[in-house]
Design brief:
Layout: H1 19-39, E1 48-54, E2 63-69, H2 106-126, H3 137-164, H4 166-178, H5 200-221, H6 227-264, H7 278-293, H8 302-309, E3 330-337, E4 340-347, H9 352-377, H10 412-422, H11 426-435, E5 466-467
Antiparallel strand pairs: 1-2, 1-5, 3-4
Helix pairs in contact: 1-3, 1-4, 2-3, 2-4, 3-4, 3-6, 5-6, 5-7, 5-9, 6-9
The protein binds benzoyl coenzyme A and fe (iii) ion (2 copies).
Residues 112, 115-116, 119-120, 123, 150, 190-191, 210-211, 213-214, 217, 294-298, 301, 303-304, 313, 353, 395 line the site of benzoyl coenzyme A.
Length: 469
């Protein structure tokens, strides 16, 4: 797998040997760049940003750091080496993995690839104005790092569409640049990717909770019997780790600062001290966690069962499962029937969305425990917690039911009366937005957030991460 960094589109897929594909992708490239100019970060396009660029797929030294203007970022196509030669689960267990799309799986596979692809540019669109209110140059650089890599993830998926789905794939690739996050007529496909992100608390919650859905979805796809999908998602996961780091530590830094300001204030009110109060932080958490839970799909899903049976989408760390056909087992799931919460036995294959969501929730619990440790250390009594999985759902049996964050069913009137306790209100949002004044001077940090424990790539916090022109 030689790496070609010199050609128009850096790649390790030997693009040069497939002229037709190369021409098709080179024709898509200007469309991507004009999408980036129009919908990528607003401003800052001429600034030098200290960016990491993927240049190899070997574990040591897969990326290099340099000052780059964002439009000059080298968006490339990189497949990790195959992890296995055979299909690891489902009805085709043990058969050779596919390098081409099996005809009968074409529609399902295309749908999975397009859904995954659509989230990548969506997130860039959602975050496009945040540069103007960055709390530090360090954070500004991290925002742009995440943005260019989501752009590369779009490339990863568009490569699959162009190479394996012919004319349909090329049309889908156009569609990915035509939909717009939040647009009434042509929105992005999945719910959370049409939500507003116009402050940095939302950005950190999004990279914590929504990018983390990405980690679990990519991990499930990296088990795929369709080898090109498995290999490309496996490489995407190496980049994803930093996005999750940005989210988890970003929230932690706000928690730390909010706790300090709470202690400082005679009435224990962080807002009075120019910070974000912990109850507001909890409401943002409620919002982004519940929105992200929906991204796993319905609790009971025949789509998910089919994806598993046909070998397209596995479980989280499938190889660590005791058994890979998942044919005999049943699992008990919570549902909502005739106005009450009930349990139901479901064949394991139909519960694959919920299994993946379980792994995700456990990971989120770990992060919340870490934030609470920060609160303990700061001597503040407040504790954060994940809301119930029944709360504020739009997909699955609990969708649009008035469950509170503790999972108790109320009346629609109770819901309306407590809405502002559960979720960020317009007044919370405008308060948080008003705090977000840009801090673009070296080594400085906004009042409402703590500095990070360390800088990027061994650089100090006061490094000039973004050189403004
Ligand atoms: N919003 O059988 P069901 C990332 C639809 S994030 C709107 O329950 P299924 C990233 C569904 O399409 C990772 N619609 O679920 C993060 C279906 O429609 P039809 C993205 C939704 O099919 C941050 C119906 O409801 N990756 O990478 O198992 C920054 C019932 O379907 C939603 C993937 O999504 C929703 N939330 O779908 C950047 C992986 N949920 O058939 C990037 C690929 C469900 O009734 N996608 N629906 O018309 C999949 O594997 C699956 O399509 C889903 C679940 C996980 C989305
Ligand atoms: Fe991504
Ligand atoms: Fe990401």
């Amino acid at each position: 797998m030689t790496i070609d960094l010199e050609s128009k589109i850096p790649n390790n897929v030997d693009l040069a040997s497939d002229r037709k594909l190369q021409r098709a992708l080179e024709a898509w490239q200007p469309s991507f760049l004009s999408w980036w100019r129009e919908m990528g970060p607003d401003g800052f396009q001429d600034d030098e940003v200290y960016l990491r660029t993927a240049v190899s797929v070997s574990a040591d030294g897969w990326a290099h750091f340099a000052n780059v203007k964002m439009p000059d970022y080298r968006w490339g196509i990189f497949l990790a080496p195959p992890a296995r030669e055979t299909i690891g689960f489902g009805d085709h267990l043990g058969e050779p993995a596919w390098n081409e799309v099996p005809g009968d799986l074409r529609a399902a596979l295309r749908r999975i690839v397009v859904t995954q692809a659509d989230t990548e540019p969506a997130s860039v669109e959602q975050q496009r104005r945040l540069g103007h209110s960055a709390p530090s140059l360090y954070d500004l650089r991290n925002l742009f790092q995440v943005n260019v890599e989501e752009g590369r993830h779009l490339w990863a998926m568009v490569y699959l569409l162009h190479k394996h789905f012919g004319r349909d794939g090329r049309e889908e690739a156009e569609g990915l640049l035509a939909r717009r996050s939040g647009d009434a007529d042509r929105p992005r496909i999945l719910g959370a990717f049409n939500a507003r992100i116009d402050d940095w608390l939302s950005f950190f919650m999004f990279t914590m909770f929504t990018d983390r859905d990405g980690k679990y979805q990519l991990a499930a796809l990296s088990e795929s019997g369709f080898a090109p999908l498995a290999r490309t998602t496996r490489f995407m996961l190496t980049e994803e780790a930093h996005h999750l780091f940005v989210g988890e530590t970003g929230v932690d830094r706000i928690v730390r600062r909010s706790a300090e300001l709470t202690r400082l204030d005679p009435n224990g009110d962080a807002r009075a001290q120019g910070g974000i109060d912990l109850p507001t932080l909890q409401r943002y958490l409620n919002y982004w966690f519940s929105l992200s839970l929906d991204l796993f799909g319905g609790e009971v899903s025949t789509n998910a069962a089919d994806f598993f049976a046909s070998g397209l989408k596995g479980r989280y760390r499938e190889s660590e499962q005791a058994e890979h056909r998942a044919l005999e087992q049943v699992v008990r799931l919570e549902t909502f029937e005739n106005g009450r919460v009930a349990e139901r036995e479901v064949p394991l294959r139909n519960a694959m969305n919920e299994q993946l969501r379980d792994a995700y929730v456990e990971d989120c619990e770990r992060a919340v425990a870490r934030w609470n440790k920060t609160l303990t250390g700061s001597g503040v009594g407040f504790r954060l917690k994940l809301p119930s999985r029944r709360f504020h759902r739009a997909i699955g049996p609990f969708a649009h039911q008035p469950f509170d964050p503790d999972g108790r069913l109320g009346s629609p009137d109770d819901w309306a009366a407590h809405l502002d306790d559960f979720l960020p209100s317009e007044s919370d949002r405008s308060f948080v937005r008003a705090l977000q004044r840009p801090v673009h001077a070296r080594g400085q940090i906004a009042h409402w957030i703590s500095p990070p424990a360390k800088g990027i790539n061994g650089q100090p916090f006061d490094f000039e991460y973004v050189r403004r022109v």
